């Protein structure tokens, strides 16, 4: 039969290993099966997921000899075989497809639970978690960084270098212990501060630059490829793959990934290796970011809302700074913080604050400026929550002070040093101190790992030594 226009998402693969063992992968998440009839148990598992979606799903069944058979599995357990060219050695899946409605599920989810719990005679299986395969390591060697001026405080001696894929950039872990890159031969490579490869994995073409984030309250390394979100737990363990609709986009503005499913489909958070739709979005609100299982939303003039699957919507009022009349509009957000413009009663004046997304309290207040001036400001916080630049407004959260650096345009931040331009010239500044003018084209660090600043030039990563 034809596939009747059934969506290809989620991707489902049923792989038979022997007479008792199989594996079902649904959107990249693995479900081991051990049963006296692993085909029936596997189909029952997929049928349960089909019932959750409220529609049939496509699946590819793979025999132990490598032969495969495309199927369509319905919520009631019915299985249909998709027409393919005839093979000499047909697998048993078409036979199951013919009899599946009578044999496979019988009682829907209840039978599935019985099937999975009734292990029957089983072969001993290893409890060791599978690891990433061994791959040829990239060339890592020392060199000199001579193409551009080194950033202040760092020498031109690179303790180690590695080639990276053009148009990608490295990610430095929050604790500074490792660096992740995409190499020209389509591998994700994670190195320690000394340049030693910790683990690596092959990735699809067009995989994006890696990002350190959190999923299920655990630190992971994530990257996206067309149609997929991957995340690695570290220590060489296999990644989780979540299949994404073609229209989906993943953003990492918060502490966890948020999957924008498109204008009509809303957004989803990631938990347990699956996507979970963000519920209860108020009318005329925008979803800003994700934090664990929660998503932060805001109306243009406030308030904020926290939405979490399976829970009621929580409204978060924002506390005003001294001298403010009302919220003019909410601008942007990052992990733990939201940027708010407040009216003061004067048409040519606004107050700009950084408020907490935990309790709505004011964390920093910038000096009063005109609305046009504030509208051009971009938000650039550091990862540790110590400093930030909000356009010309420099913020020291530790000391609770702000100051204006006229015409400053922030570009990047490394630890407590903020890099940016003033009238086309490059400067570095630590909030609360005087800015330092840098030589033209000075390299800006992506981060610091151990005693090395990570810079990139011409698709080569350099780990610079301290002066």
Please give a structural write-up:
The structure is a single chain. It contains 4 helices and 39 strands. The chain starts with 11 loop residues before the first strand and ends with a strand. The protein has a 6-stranded mixed β-sheet, covered by helices on one side. A 5-stranded antiparallel β-sheet has the order 7-8-39-38-37, with no helix packed on it. It has a 4-stranded antiparallel β-sheet with strand order 9-10-11-12, with no helix packed on it. About 7% of the residues have low confidence. By secondary structure, the chain is mainly beta. The longest helix has 16 residues. Helix content is 9%, strand content 44%. Helix 1 packs antiparallel against helix 3.
Profile the largest sheet: 6 strands, mixed
Question: Which structural class is indicated by helix and strand composition?
Answer: mainly beta
Q: Describe the global form.
A: flat
Strand content: 35-45%
Distance between the termini: 70 Å
Question: How much helicity do the residues have?
Answer: under 10%
| Total strand segments | 39
Overall mean confidence score, pLDDT: 88
Tally of helical runs: 4
Rg from alpha-carbon coordinates? 27 Å
Low-confidence stretches: 97-127
Strand order of the largest sheet: 3-2-1-4-5-6
Top keywords for this entry?
467 residues, mainly beta, 6-stranded mixed β-sheet, 4 helices, flat
Summarize the structure in short.
The protein is 9% helix and 44% strand.
Helices, strands, pairings?
Layout: E1 12-16, E2 21-26, E3 29-34, H1 38-53, E4 57-62, E5 68-73, E6 79-81, H2 93-103, H3 109-117, E7 141-144, E8 154-163, E9 171-172, E10 178-183, E11 187-192, E12 197-202, E13 211-215, E14 218-225, E15 228-232, E16 240-243, E17 249-251, E18 258-262, E19 266-271, E20 274-277, E21 285-291, E22 294-299, E23 304-307, E24 314-316, E25 326-334, E26 337-343, E27 350-356, E28 362-365, H4 371-375, E29 379-381, E30 387-390, E31 393-396, E32 401-404, E33 408-414, E34 417-422, E35 425-429, E36 436-437, E37 447-449, E38 452-457, E39 460-466
Parallel strand pairs: 1-4
Antiparallel strand pairs: 1-2, 2-3, 4-5, 5-6, 7-8, 8-39, 9-10, 10-11, 11-12, 13-14, 14-15, 15-16, 17-18, 18-19, 19-20, 21-22, 22-23, 23-24, 25-26, 26-27, 27-28, 29-30, 30-31, 31-32, 33-34, 34-35, 35-36, 37-38, 38-39
Helix pairs in contact: 1-3
């Amino acid at each position: 039969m034809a596939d009747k226009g059934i969506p290809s998402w989620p991707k489902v693969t049923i792989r038979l290993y022997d007479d008792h063992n199989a594996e079902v992968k649904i959107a990249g998440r693995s479900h081991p099966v051990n049963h006296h009839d692993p085909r029936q148990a596997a189909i029952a598992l997929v049928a349960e997921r089909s019932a959750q979606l409220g529609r049939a799903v496509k699946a590819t069944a793979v025999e132990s000899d490598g032969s495969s058979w495309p199927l369509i599995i319905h919520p009631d357990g019915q299985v249909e075989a998709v027409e393919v060219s005839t093979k000499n050695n047909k697998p048993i899946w078409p036979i199951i497809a013919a009899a599946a409605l009578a044999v496979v599920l019988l009682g829907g989810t209840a039978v599935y639970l019985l099937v999975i719990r009734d292990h029957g005679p089983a072969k001993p299986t290893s409890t060791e978690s599978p690891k990433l395969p061994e791959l040829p390591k990239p060339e890592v060697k020392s060199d000199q960084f001579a193409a551009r001026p080194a950033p202040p405080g760092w020498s031109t001696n690179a303790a180690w270098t590695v080639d990276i894929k053009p148009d990608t950039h490295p990610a430095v872990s929050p604790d500074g212990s490792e660096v992740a890159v995409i190499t020209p031969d389509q591998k994700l490579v994670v190195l320690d501060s000394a340049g030693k490869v910790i683990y690596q994995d092959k990735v699809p073409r067009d995989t994006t630059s890696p990002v350190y984030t959190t999923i299920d309250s655990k630190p992971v390394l994530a990257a996206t490829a067309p149609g997929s979100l991957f995340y690695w737990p570290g220590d060489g363990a296999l990644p989780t793959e979540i299949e994404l609709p073609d229209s989906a986009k993943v953003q990492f503005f918060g502490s966890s990934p948020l999957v924008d499913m498109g204008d009509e489909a809303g957004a989803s958070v990631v938990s347990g290796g699956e996507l979970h739709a963000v519920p209860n979005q108020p009318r005329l609100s925008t979803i800003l970011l994700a934090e664990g299982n929660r998503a932060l939303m805001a109306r243009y003039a406030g308030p904020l809302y926290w939405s979490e699957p399976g829970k009621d919507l929580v409204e978060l009022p924002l506390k005003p700074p001294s001298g403010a009349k009302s919220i003019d509009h909410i601008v942007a957000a990052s992990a733990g913080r939201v940027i708010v413009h407040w009216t003061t009663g004067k048409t040519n004046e606004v107050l700009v604050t950084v408020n907490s997304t935990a309790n709505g309290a004011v964390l920093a207040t910038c000096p009063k400026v005109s609305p046009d001036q504030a509208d051009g400001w971009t938000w650039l916080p550091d990862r540790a929550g110590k400093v930030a630049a909000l356009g010309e407004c420099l913020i020291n959260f530790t000391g609770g002070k702000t100051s204006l650096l006229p015409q400053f345009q922030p570009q990047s931040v490394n630890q407590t040093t903020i890099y940016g331009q003033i009238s086309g010239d490059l400067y570095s500044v630590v909030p609360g101190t005087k800015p330092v003018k840098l030589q033209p084209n000075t390299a800006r660090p992506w981060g610091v790992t151990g005693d090395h600043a990570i810079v990139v030039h011409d698709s080569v990563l350099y780990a610079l030594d301290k002066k």
